[in-house]
Write a structure and sequence with these properties.
CATH superfamily: Peptidase C15, pyroglutamyl peptidase I-like
Number of helices: 6
Oligomer: single chain
Distance between the termini: 32 Å
Helix content: 25-40%
Number of strands: 8
Structural class: alpha/beta
Order of helices and strands: EHEEHEEEHEHEHH
Largest sheet: 8 strands, mixed
């Protein structure tokens, strides 16, 4: 899945447009779909301002993550890198500030592996900070009427691992970071149906967000990132 649709130019004399690397994850944890993968597939090859989106879908596999990231970035010098993932209990778009140097799973990955307090890089720093313009993205999402918030950490699962490793792989000062997405309405409905209408756990949030609105949020985040990087005026919805 998730191979870029664009083809290299063939000596037309025109310089290739800048690229944005956009990653998402395959389904996991019993979900049949992952909105991050659906959005990556929808935006792959499309233009955001002057840039072309290159979409890649990553495996939910800690041991295979490094190879998958290397493959995703092969041949690219992106103007920005934005990684997406599903936060199954998150009701809004969540903009991650920090990736931690630890993996500690409450749910096995798709290979069945469970990491327990394992460093992602024994020689690496304890944490790496997002290089996305998070406050500008937050402002533009809220101005567009899309619920969003800042978050202190990306968790301890594959999303955090991808953010931590991408921030190491992507040269500074290239913008790079992670955005968590809420579940889709049909995913919440399926959980309720399987439990005869009872929530998965007492007090668990049941909010969801339509895929079209999630896609719009990602498009705004990419456009804001590019505008902030290039100094172009930001266009608000």
């Amino acid at each position: 899945m998730s191979r870029p649709r664009g083809r290299p130019s063939r000596g037309t004399g025109r310089s290739a447009p800048p690229t944005i690397l956009l990653t998402g994850f395959e389904p996991f944890g019993g979900f049949a779909k992952n909105p991050s993968a659906l959005i990556v597939e929808a935006l792959d090859g499309r233009r955001i301002g002057p840039a072309r989106v290159v979409g890649r879908i990553l495996p939910v596999d800690l041991a295979g993550l490094d190879e998958a990231l290397a493959t995703a970035m092969s041949g690219l010098a992106p103007a920005a890198v934005v990684a997406l993932g599903l936060a199954a209990s998150e009701p809004v778009i969540r903009l991650e500030r920090v990736a931690l140097n630890v993996a500690d799973f409450t749910t096995p990955d798709n290979t069945g592996a469970v990491a327990r307090n394992a460093p992602l890089d024994p020689a690496g720093p304890d944490a790496r900070l997002s290089r996305l313009p998070l406050e500008a993205i937050l402002d533009d999402l809220l101005a567009a009427g899309i619920p969003a918030r800042l978050s202190e950490t990306a968790g301890l699962y594959l999303c955090n691992a991808a953010m931590y490793r991408l921030l190491d792989r992507v040269p500074a000062p290239t913008p790079c970071g992670f955005i968590h997405l809420p579940p889709l309405p049909e995913q919440v409905a399926a959980q309720l149906r399987d439990r005869d209408g009872r929530p998965p756990e007492r007090g668990a949030p049941l909010a969801s967000m339509d895929l079209a609105l999630q896609r719009r949020a990602v498009e705004i985040a990419l456009a804001t990132t590019l505008a902030t990087t290039t100094g172009r005026p930001r266009k608000r919805s």
